[in-house]
Give the backbone structure.
Amino acid sequence: MLRLLSLALGAAALALGASPAVMAKKKAAPPAEPPAWTTDAYASTYRPVASAPVLISGATVLIGNGERLDGADVLLQEGRIAAVGVGLTAPAGALRVDGSGKWVTPGIIDNHSHLGVYSSPGTESHADGNEMVNPVTAQVWAEHSVWPQDPGFAAALAGGVTTLQLLPGSANLVGGRGVTLKNVPSVDVQGMKFPGAPYGLKMACGENPKRVYGQRGGPMTRMGNVAGYRAAFIEAQEYAKRRAGADPGKRDLKLDTLAAAMAGEIQVHIHCYRADEIALMLDLAREFEFRIASIHHGVEAYKIADRLAGQGVCASLWADWWGFKMEAFDGIQENLVMVDRPPNSCAIVHSDSPEGIQRLNQEAAKAMAAGRRAGIEVAPERAIRWLTQNPARSLGILDQTGTLEAGKMGDVVLWNGTPFSSYALAEKVWIDGALMYDRKDPARQPVSDFHLGQTDSQGGTP
Amino acid sequence: MSARSILFALALLPALAPQHAAAQDFLIRNATVHTATAQGTLPGTDVLVRGGKIAAVGKGLVAEGVEVVDAAGRPLTPTLFGGISGIGLEEVSSEIPTQDAALALGATAKDVVVRPEFDVTLAYNPDSILVPVARVEGIGFTLLTANTAPGGSIIGGQGAMVRLDGSPDTMGPKVLFVSLGGSAAELSGASRAGQWMLLDQLVSELRGEMPAELAHLTPAGRSVLKNYIGGGGRIVFEVNRAADIRQLLRWAAKHHLDIAISGGAEAWRLGAELAAAKVPVFVDALANLPANFDQIHATMENAARLRAAGVAVGFSLAGDSSHNARKNRQLAGNAVAHGLPWEDGLAGLTRVPAEAFGVADRIGSIAVGKSADLVLWSGDPLDVAHTARQVWMQGRAIPMRSRQTELRDRYLRPTPQPEQGQLPYAYPAR
């Protein structure tokens, strides 16, 4: 017992030790070298499940980078994509999966989810997504709200989702940090955290902040919103200067996050519907020298698709949501395909919904169908990028996942046919080379603690 | 009719009923006709439309002097049901002055004010931009719903079917809406048990057993409710939990009600009972999560299991069904992907709602004598990969335009370059 205790204390000391060491380094660093703002005291403990090599053979393979291979094989080894091509040889002991008639894609990535912070069942006690006490709460981190038992995670996995970003809500101008997770069941959020993924920062334009704070000290208007972002970033600029100087003073979590955004250590994600407000956000980013990873919701992004592509800003979009508020009044189903059209574009299908995240492939299919009707044909190998490569880019993890290129994580989905259909079903989902979901095998279907013992009146499990 | 009166009639016609003015006779040649009747699907079949109605269905039909539409084997269906919605009753969900689907007369949210006579169809706006947005997607009709709200009661009021062709009037009998379960418990003293208490009180009141000081109903409300209690009209109960559905079946049997269920996330657990009572269930087939404690046993297989038990299954989106009415066919397609036979998927969007809400004599199927409310599709109508190519209502080809297609077409143009003398987007395209 004593020994266990001292071991535990030792581990704790080690964990604590990491942080002061980095802090000390910060203090010692010359002013020219900006401090690292994003030291992670709540580090990932995710460990992939070990698996034998897997060879999926004879499938239609969408690589995720715009390429398509027919009758091709995908080899997973040691948790990574080992090879994709025709006529691959299975290594000894490999699990073989017949992919004939089926399609293979990279694992689906949703860069806008509130699973775990607004869980199912939706209860007041679990409403943990909006720190609605101040319009700027850059100090809060979504990962500190996550309930890993949200049954929505398993449902999303059955829809092929292997990676997702959980974001704070949009009540605040600056809502806090988002976190990127591998979609694996875990007792704690650290066990889900995507190793090495940068943090996200959630900001919000438009109606939500002014509705929430209009009668609580403001902002009450859109001009109040913009004044709020500017004031926050000005404060963070001064903070960054002070922290880099001889007398760094007290650490401030809120300003840490904003300084990190300006230093490019955090991916900035902005909830913004209207084209005119998106244009203002592009200028805000220029004023404070930060990069916008993605505009989220962007129901009017199609009106300024050229500008978004030209400035390398992604747009995370729904296929067909519209009309639920004024800033969503101009939503059209061709938004995705129109944002996708210009060179260097980065269109993304996102969910913002525990239902939508289960069918991002169908959201893409709807946009493709609307595009076809408008004379814009998008091939499956291109459309899949909206769910894989582009969201990976927006999350800063494209070097690790998002395409089936050799060396990347073995995050793979086997579909019963084309993914772009109402009838598409993910049959098998691998995460880091391990089979984490199999539609035909209940032993490979995670069940949340919440579902245990929820039997019918006769005591059977429905 | 004299020449003068014909002229008079012609002059009036466009102003009075523009939506019917352009109805014409035509022949749809070589379609895959999904009849949504016992006839099922008829490949390579023609449909002849005369006077706004289906005049013939068969192979190799001959009709002199009428326009021919070559379907090239594509699917032809009846127009689809947009679900139980507030199309024409709301424009922008968050803007209260554009909302007319619920009545809240109570001075406080806790006041129970029962107004079954409240009739949302009086607020229906056929010019709503939601109407063309839905119909260009093949959605031809919807059931207008009276929602419940704090300051009202669990009885929302009445709605009816409306055809989305711009006609100002509803097309079927009135339907009464009642909400049950956890989400409605704030309207019944914070307990769902209070809902049965209130409903029993209302029945007592109809029988004249309640003292006037305890009465809830106005004379108009008594007259309306009396019609429904006893089976004189369809009552739609919004309810999800199996236990609540069980209570509902008992209560409905006791009072000989004619009911339907919307939501029904756990209805599959009572499939046999619902089938025996002939209760149609309108499900949101995508609602598979335990979103609240009323639907712990929600499953993607709800529709398939209900149908296998013999229940008539229709579809209706639980969320913003007005703006998203076009999503209803995605519900059907996903139900099919989870075990529902395809023909039942289509029926849930056509015949089942038409029969449940009293308009099956006109719409909901392709058969001789039925109204020519038809959709020609680019492919499988239950698959989101396909879209409606042409919609007809009462034989009139609907312009496949909406505010959304106008926005699309404006911004499909290249970004205007002022240096080259090009005017901003706001000017009409040259």
